[in-house]
Amino acid sequence: MDVLQPPRNDSPARMDRLAKLPIFWALEGKRVVVAGGTDAAAWKAELLAACGAEVHVYAEQLSETFQHLIAQNAAHPQGRFVHAAQSWDRKSMIGAVMAIADCEQEDEAQAFFDAARDAGVPVNVIDKPAFCQFQFGSIVNRSPVVVSISTDGAAPILAQAIRRRIETLLPQALKGWAQLAQSLREAVNQRLATAQLRRAFWERFVDRAFSSSDTPEEGVGGQLLDDADRLLEAPASSTCTGRVTLVGAGPGDAELLTLKAVRALQAADVILFDDLVSSEVLELARREAKRMLVGKRGGRTSCRQEDINEMMVKLAKAGKRVVRLKSGDPMIFGRAGEEIAHLDRENIPVDVIPGITAASAMASCLGISLTHRDHAQSVRFITGHSRSGGLPVDVNWAMVADPHTTTVFYMGGRTAALIADRLTSEGLSPSTPAVIISDVSRATQRHWRGQLKTIRDGIAAIGYEKPVLIAVGLALAAGRKIVEVPDSPAGWENVADIGLQGGGGMAAGRPIILSGGIGQLASAVQ
After folding, report:
1. Looking at 296, 317, 453, 466, which residue is catalytic?
2. CA dist., res. 459 & res. 455, Å (int)
3. Is 30 a known active-site residue?
4. Which helix (H) or strand (E) holds 140?
5. Residues 274, 402, 439, 497: which is the catalytic one?
6. Contact (Cβ atoms closer than 8 angstroms) between residue 27 and residue 3
7. Residue 271 bridge partners (DSSP)
8. pLDDT digit string (tens) for 394-416?
9. Residues of the chain with pLDDT under 50
10. Of 68, 81, 242, 264, which is most buried with the most CB atoms under 10 A?
C-alpha cells in the first residue's frame, strides 16, 4: 500500500518554544540564603538542604515546623542549617549562590529582590512571580533520578496532578537502580569500548530495573559486570530470553489498574490483549509496544488457546518483554494456569500482576457488600457455562443453592434462565434477590435488580452481547435505598438505582434497570 510521504525537512530539528529553561543545580557545600521563618520558607530550606546546601536562615522568629526542621538536620550529609535570629541585610548576600524569601509586603519583596540582584545572586520570592528570576517545579524524587514539572506558574494544581501520574510510573526501587548505575558506569566504560556495546548493556540494565519492583540485591553489580564481559565476547549472538507477565486489566475503568500493572504496560515490547480489555487501559501502554488482539468470546470467532501459548513462547524466545493482558484478574476464569504451565515447560520466566475482578467491581459500583454477617458468610464465583455452552456439569448445584452464600456467575448471560431454573429446582427460594450487570465500571454499564424468579426478564432487558455478571444471594438485599420508579415502563431506562428497597430488589413489584450514571440520576429525581 502506497503511503503519502510528508515533505522532507533537511534543516536541523529545532526545540519548540520553552516557557522556562529546566536546570538541575549542584548545591553541595554552597551558601544559600532563606529569609523568613514561615512554613513556606521552611519547605524551601528543606529542599535546599536536601541538595547539600549550607542554608543560612534569617528570621527573628521561626514557625514550629521550621524549628523542628532545623533540630533534625538535613537529609543530605553536606546539608546544614545556620539560623540567625535577625532580619536579612545586604551583607547576607555575600558569598551566596541563591536567595529565597517569603515576604508579606510588596516593598519588602522589592527590597530583597533588588539586594540579591545587585549582588549577582539568583533570587526567588515565594508566591510573587514578579520578584522571581527562577521557579521551583513539582518534584518526583528517586534521587539520583529527579523529575521536575513546571507549568510556568499557570496551573500549580496541574503540575501536582502530573507529578502524581509520574509517581505511579516510577517505582521507589528506581532510586537503588540509579545509584547502582552510577557505581557501575566507569567499570562498564572500561570493559566496553564501543558506543554500540555500551548501549546494549545499558538497555539490558534498564529492562532489568523496570521489570522489578525490588531494590537491587547484594552482588547484582558483579553479575551485571559479568554480563558485560559476555556481551564483549559474543556481541553478535548475545540475544537473551525475554519474559512474560500476565497482567490483570480490571473490569474496564483504567483508573482501577494497579501501579504495578501500569509499569508493566509501560515496559512491554508486545501486548497480547483480550477482547474485553478497554481502549482506556491500552492507552496507558508504551507507545512503541506492538498490540495484538488475541481475544476469546463466546459465540464468536476467537484465537485458539494453543496458538496464544505458542505466540507467547515465540516472542519471549526472541527476547521480547511480553504482557499478556487479561480482563479482570488473570487468575480468575482467565486460563492463566494453562498459560503458566506451558511457559514453565518452555523455561520462559513468567510472573503475574493481579487485577480487580469483575465481581468486586460490581459490588463497588452498586454499593453492595458481597458478604454480610447476617446474610452471607461466604462468596462463590462460578463459570456460567460449560465448554458445550450449557450449564457446567461438574458443579455441586445443591451446595450452590445456599441463600447464605453470595454466588456470582461469570459469563452466564446466555444461560441465565437455566441458572435460575436449576437453583430453584435445588431448593433456593424464587424470591431470592438477584442482580444482573453488564459492562461493569464502564460508561456503558447497565444493571437490573430483581428476584431469582424474574431473571428471565432481567437478562431480556440487559442483553448478553456485553460481558454479563449474575449475582444471587440474601446479602444483595442489604444495600441502599432507591429512588421512586416511574409508573411507565418506558420511564425505567433513565432511573439510576442507588440501592435496594425492601428485601428483594423490587419497587412496587417492578424490576429496576440502570442505564447511564449520576447525571441521569440527577434528572430522574428532580
Report:
1. 296
2. 6
3. no
4. strand 138-142
5. 274
6. no
7. 291, 323
8. 999 999 999 899 999 999 999 99
9. 1-13, 235-238, 480-526
10. 264
